[in-house]
User: Which sequence fits this backbone?
């Protein structure tokens, strides 16, 4: 899979941060993503270029995430207009507040189906290497967000299953549940 120069640089810079981070003791063994890695911007806003969501998969994603115990779907604090924030409910403790996007928001989904999420550093690295994600520009700059990535828009049911697993891991990471 050919990576753009911007993606390669982001991986290198974030890798420097990842190598200094505490390892999260687990191996996820993500499958290699079969569809091409989309191009993304390198700054803020951090978005995919020329990718559209599959409405049926987007609906399934929202439905599945809304069924995770303790997760609430709300407006995002920081995502683009039309994005849906994935929030930790008030009754759940946040174990890693420095890894939330802002407040209780641990991830959000953009109108194009891509997502931003905080992952354990090792999982973020694995997701990037397997073609599921790219580091967010904040990952190398903000303490606590070393595992902050853009997860690419799912385009098949199999991809949706992996994306939902990544969101579940994000929730577990932030809450230690």
Assistant:
């Amino acid at each position: 899979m050919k990576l753009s120069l911007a993606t390669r640089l982001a991986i290198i810079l974030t890798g420097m941060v990842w190598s200094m981070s505490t390892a999260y003791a687990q191996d996820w063994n993500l499958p290699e993503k079969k569809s091409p890695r989309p191009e993304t911007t390198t700054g803020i806003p951090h978005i995919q270029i020329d990718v559209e969501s599959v409405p049926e998969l987007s609906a399934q994603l929202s439905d599945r995430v809304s069924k995770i115990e303790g997760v609430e779907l709300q407006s995002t604090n920081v995502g683009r207009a039309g994005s849906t924030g994935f929030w930790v409910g008030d009754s759940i403790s946040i174990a890693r507040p420095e890894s939330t996007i802002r407040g209780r928001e641990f991830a959000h989904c953009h109108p194009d189906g891509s997502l931003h999420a905080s992952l354990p550093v090792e999982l973020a690295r694995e997701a990037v290497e397997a073609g599921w994600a790219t580091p967010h520009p904040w990952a190398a700059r903000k303490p606590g967000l070393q595992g902050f990535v853009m997860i690419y828009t799912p385009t098949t049911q199999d991809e949706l299953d992996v994306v939902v697993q990544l969101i579940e891991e994000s929730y577990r990471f932030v809450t230690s549940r």
Summary: Confidence is low (pLDDT under 50) at residues 13-25. The chain is about 30% helix and 15% strand.
